[in-house]
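Subgroup meeting minutes
Present: P.N., E.W., G.H.
Scribe: E.W.

1. P.N. recapped why we're keeping a running log of single-chain structure predictions: easier to compare across weeks, and new members can see raw inputs and outputs side by side.
2. G.H. added today's entry (371 aa).
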Amino acid sequence: MRGQHVTTRHGAIAAFLLVAIVCRAQEKFVNEQYDLQKVADGVYSFIAPEQESGVVQANCSVIIGEEAVLLVDSGQFPSLAERMAADIKKLTNKPVRYLVNTHWHFDHNWGNAVFRDAFPGLVIISTEFTREMVASEGPKTLAKQAGINSQQAADLRKMLDAGKLPDGRTIPSELHRSFRLSADTLEHINPDLARTVNLPASIGFEKELTIHLGKREAKVMWLGRANTAGDAVTWVPDVKLLLTGDAVVYPTPFAFGSYMSEWPDVLDKMIALNAELVIPGHGPVLHDSSYLKTLAEMFRVLYSEVKQAVAQGMSLKDAQKKIALDEFREKLAGADAFRKMAFHSAFLEPAIDRAYQEATGKLKPESEDDQ
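Output recorded in log:
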């Protein structure tokens, strides 16, 4: 498990407790809130706010045609999925026939069973890689996650009582609230875990499929390995809308188990679509591809610097000390202390690790990458 008191990125909650991305006005827990936004005609998205707790929920979207409805991602909390299903029924009386899972991380698909029950006949679609990973890794993660959450919450409270991090440093004052909220959140979401059913897709595809919704089509595509080996992106050409899953996350990409040399090529393929609307896996709706270009450049710079470090015989620890990407950190995080922390712990450190694995020919399977 990577870092101190960190729930695995591939686990139920993706809790980066030392990464907490701030949402200073947060009043509700992560499984109690979303912002339902109209993105385009017949397109809506349940946008998950940034979380000071560090526990995340995926963006989930609704694409309505004249004959049928397509959903993209289902989130991870049954209670929130039930609310989303109720809102979808208010938005349209068209049959909800399809649900695409963008990838296998469970904050994007543990709501599947709720949507299946809410919309009889629903077909769940993902890449075959994603289908296999949800089927194999989901039950193992679900069986242990509640216990991990409880232990992490207890550890956080002990740290707060002592005022010290595990390495002996004093907990910065600006993190006290985040640590308390993280502990409260980890305990609060456990009842949702008790209700969760791990349900993989019933249809797996390899390259591309087109879903016809009635005077609207959606192309679901695998463009290469990026955040995972099975990322599915959805392109809705009539409104120039791209839904990326975690191949794009704003303002800090997640790089656990990712493919740093290949990811930029996937982003280039997305950029070539000339999207006017981009719904990332986490973060606000974007209105052009400029952020995707920044990510592609940053990933290429990082991989190049890691390759140079490997060629010089540098250890992984030394490479992580040397490679800082200060220009990109400033561009993505600015002066925000929490986003700076997120840039380091959610992106830079794991990205260097993965690039180092790749450059040395020792790339681990995704499911083992943060063990």
